[in-house]
Amino acid sequence: MSKSKLVYSIHDELKRLNEQIDLKIIIGQSYVREAKAHKSLRAQLSQARRNAWLTRSFGFASFL
User: Residue 10's closest CA among 44, 56, 55?
Assistant: First the structure.
């Protein structure tokens, strides 16, 4: 899976999780499981963006 598709799919999953968390907050239910999944997805998104930035940086420096 390419980086852009990975980032896109993580964003979609985060949107879905946010909706679930919002509904559980409104209803008054616990959302611990969703919060852990959200935290994990945010870490994956951060890692994907960090790797993409490093790749672009080294790619730019290589042709100098």
Answer: 44
The domain ranges of the chain are 3-62
Name the nearest CA neighbour of 16 among 28, 34, 39.
Answer: 34
> pTM for this structure?
0.72
- Which of 50, 62, 64 lies closest to 3, judged by CA? 50
CA distance 46 to 14: 13
User: pLDDT by residue (tens digit) across 21-40?
Assistant: 999 999 999 999 999 999 99
Torsion sign, CA atoms 48, 53, 58, 63: positive
